[in-house]
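User: My instructor asked us to take a sequence, write out its structure as tokens, and then describe one feature of it. I'm not sure where to start. Here is the sequence I was given:
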Amino acid sequence: MIRDAILYIIGLLNDFISPVDTTVDDQVVLGNIALVDAFNDASAQNLRNKIIASVANIEQESTLRNLPHTISVPGEDGIPRGVRQSPKVWLNVYVLFAANNNNYENALFYISKVIGFFQANHVFDPAQNPGLNPNIEKLIFDLYSMSFEELNHVWSYMGGKYVPSVMYKMRMVAIQEAEEGEAGVIRSLGTTPNVL
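Assistant: Let's start with the prediction itself. The structure tokens for your sequence are:
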């Protein structure tokens, strides 16, 4: 799901940045910004003069951590049936967009375009975005502002020199690989009087 979500957003970003000229290579690519200076091979060359989308962190959404393992869902006949399944893991994915461009003015231009894209479109769902994987209920992009100290830590563990960049928190990616099982349904509640 993470890969599907990010690749879909990258496709929309490329359409936003170069809407007319289809002969130009994609400006936004999925890659690991930490590898830009690590190797002098083709994989690093493909990241030059591009906006690189890198996953910087993945965290579980704490407010959706304690969901029930058994739920009641309507069956085909409309009668509720119990379903036992481990709850989905809801994730927040921090995506760093870094303009790895030899021309600093172009780097600033492209980062501004990324910010402008998410300012105009920050919520994505399958109803409004038919190309989005239908298993993704909703994606919400929030600008994640880092302090200078956090920025220093991020670029230190990425192992690179700072380039113009912006980080977004992509909320509510769900992972569900557990299979469903049958569970009983509570049909009535009753009380038994205490007998002494």
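For the description part of your assignment, you could build on this observation: The chain has a mean pLDDT of 79. Try explaining in your own words what that tells you about the chain.
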